[in-house]
Amino acid sequence: MSVQVEGSGGVFSWRSPMGSLGRTLVVLVTATCLAGLSACGSGDDGKTITLYNAQHQDLMRVMVDAFTKQTGIKVELRRGGDPELANQIVQEGDSSPADVFVTENSPAMTLVDRAGRFSKLDRATLGQVPDQYVPSTGNWVGFAARSTVFIYNRGQVAKNELPTSIMDLAGPAWKGKVGVAAAGADFQAIVSAVLAVKGEGATAEWLAGLKRNAKIYDNNIAALRAVNAGEVPAAVIYHYYWYQDQAESGKDSRNVDLHFFGHRDPGAFVSVSGAGVLAASDQQAEAQRLVAFLTSDAGQKALVDSGALEYAVSDAVPTNPALKPLSTLDPPDIDISTLNGPKVVELMQRAGLL
Ligand SMILES: [Fe+2]
């Protein structure tokens, strides 16, 4: 027979050819776990917290495993998209099983924050990252960053034809020539930056232009593949999709170059992934420890080493040298806690992009 105990800290396997001895040991293992002793797993008291995870699953698996290794606290991941899980948390209210919420982009954090569903974060946690990754409420914290990037097929777009602003993509020169993953939370965060920088009128006009010009893709990877294949000459995505493909086979990006808008254009938007502790959690201390870990040197190093190729936000941990340095991106100055996800959805629906 075999006994297998699987947790986020790893898999423990034990085999015995003898049925009765095996059964006795199963009982012993179970009793030990129930008693909260160390034989259960990673040297902890057997606590498990629940993470509503809207970030990429592979990245969070790596970060959470490093957390469990350090603290012994296990983490159960429940997966969903930014707006989906944010709305779920608000709907579940006090009965939400979530202890911690992690997103790809900050508009979903703001939605939960405005509904009053977050606890205050420990000050020491907020102090682990530069100020621009801390919202004014102090109720959540940024732990990863991702840059907007214009990608183009180098056989179809000449360097002197590159747009100087993301706003240019609404003009007639780009009709049928640009791809976007309109339904994705990533692209919607970029639209929220346009809204924050340019205001509602200009954003509505820009979206109407995109509706005329853009080809719509299911997600960023589909847009990258389409540009690589020459199906559409250009697209707007986040940087790590291109860098990840380059680091693997390059098969979906070998004909594709990157153009960073820079000069504080809304197209140079750097989106922030957030983490927060839910007010309804009955494991506040453990939940605070997870968010503290994500922003700690060890957590940030796990992010960099994960191969996700997102940017670390801590000044203390150098980002992967393959990336264009975060300090050179020259993004627009945006308060990450003001980005308005629901308004973006409304404007995109009105423009016919959703
Ligand atoms: Fe993404």
From TrEMBL:
Indicate which residues the UniProt annotation says bind Fe cation.
H56, E104, Y240, Y241
What CDD domains does this protein map onto? PBP2_Fbp (cd13543)
Instruction: List cellular component terms (GO).
Output: outer membrane-bounded periplasmic space
Q: Name one GO molecular function term.
A: metal ion binding
What InterPro entries does this protein map onto? Answer: Ferric-bd, SBP_1_CS
Q: Which UniProt keywords apply?
A: Ion transport, Iron, Iron transport, Metal-binding, Signal, Transport
* UniProt keyword annotation of Metal-binding present: yes
Q: Name one GO biological process term.
A: iron ion transport
List the PANTHER family hit by this protein, alphabetically.
IRON-UTILIZATION PERIPLASMIC PROTEIN, THIAMINE-BINDING PERIPLASMIC PROTEIN-RELATED
Sequence similarity: Belongs to the bacterial solute-binding protein 1 family.
Q: What is this protein called?
A: Extracellular solute-binding protein, family 1
Organism for this UniProt entry: Frankia casuarinae (strain DSM 45818 / CECT 9043 / HFP020203 / CcI3)
